[in-house]
Design brief:
Protein name: Large ribosomal subunit protein bL35
InterPro entries: Ribosomal_bL35, Ribosomal_bL35-like, Ribosomal_bL35_CS, Ribosomal_bL35_sf
Pfam family, one: Ribosomal_L35p
Strand order of the largest sheet: 1-2-3
GO molecular function, one term: structural constituent of ribosome
Structural class: alpha+beta
Number of helices: 3
Largest sheet: 3 strands, antiparallel
Shape: elongated
Radius of gyration: 15 Å
Number of strands: 3
Distance between the termini: 19 Å
Organism: Marinobacter nauticus (strain ATCC 700491 / DSM 11845 / VT8) (Marinobacter aquaeolei)
Length: 63
């Protein structure tokens, strides 16, 4: 059986860390005027992937 190809989109979106995978928070690119400063502040930075999604991310990124 041939090797599975990695999903190139997933490779760009998720980075492997020591404890799991991190990703950029969504809802931060446009239409920011209606979002409160608190909401925008909390959307900053990166978040860790939920434990239930780690297996599927591993399959997509071949880590």
């Amino acid at each position: 059986m041939p090797k599975m190809k990695t999903k190139s989109g997933a490779t760009k979106r998720f980075k492997k860390t020591a404890t799991g995978f991190k990703h950029k928070q969504s809802f931060t690119s446009h239409i920011l005027t209606k979002k409160s400063p608190k909401r925008k502040r909390q959307l900053r930075g990166t978040k860790l992937i939920a434990k239930s999604d780690v297996a599927s991310i591993k399959r997509m990124t071949a880590c």
